[in-house]
Amino acid sequence: MKNSTTKPYDILGISSATLCLLHCIVFPILTVIPFGFSDNAFIDAIFACIGMFVVSKVLMSPATNRVKCILIFSIILIITSVIVELLFDLHTELILVGGIGMIIGHLLNYKNHKNKSL
């Protein structure tokens, strides 16, 4: 029954990781079009903070080791990318790989919830 308490966190994680991924893919395209948008690394930092919160909740749950490893690796990639962007103003693809990993990890954990409730 304890697993079902992380379902909302998985949904939040999937949603925020998907929004982050869309932001990371679409926003650079919008900066090319002269709308006056400027890139702001703090938006990425906010998504990373949400991701850290959700990953910490899943890590404290009885999720599988595979899911925990995927989420830890993904959040490390995202945080590394955000730090590199804040310090050196370099945009890396690490955040995209980390976002995809977060989505996959949360989907796997959510699928485990569904299988245990059957």
Automatic annotation (TrEMBL):
GO terms for cellular component: membrane. Pfam families: MerC. Coiled coil: none annotated. The chain crosses the membrane at residues 12-35, 41-60, 67-88, 94-110. Keywords: Membrane, Transmembrane, Transmembrane helix. GO terms for molecular function: mercury ion transmembrane transporter activity. It comes from the Bacteria. This is MerC mercury resistance protein. It comes from Flavobacterium fryxellicola. The lineage of its organism: Bacteria, Pseudomonadati, Bacteroidota, Flavobacteriia, Flavobacteriales.
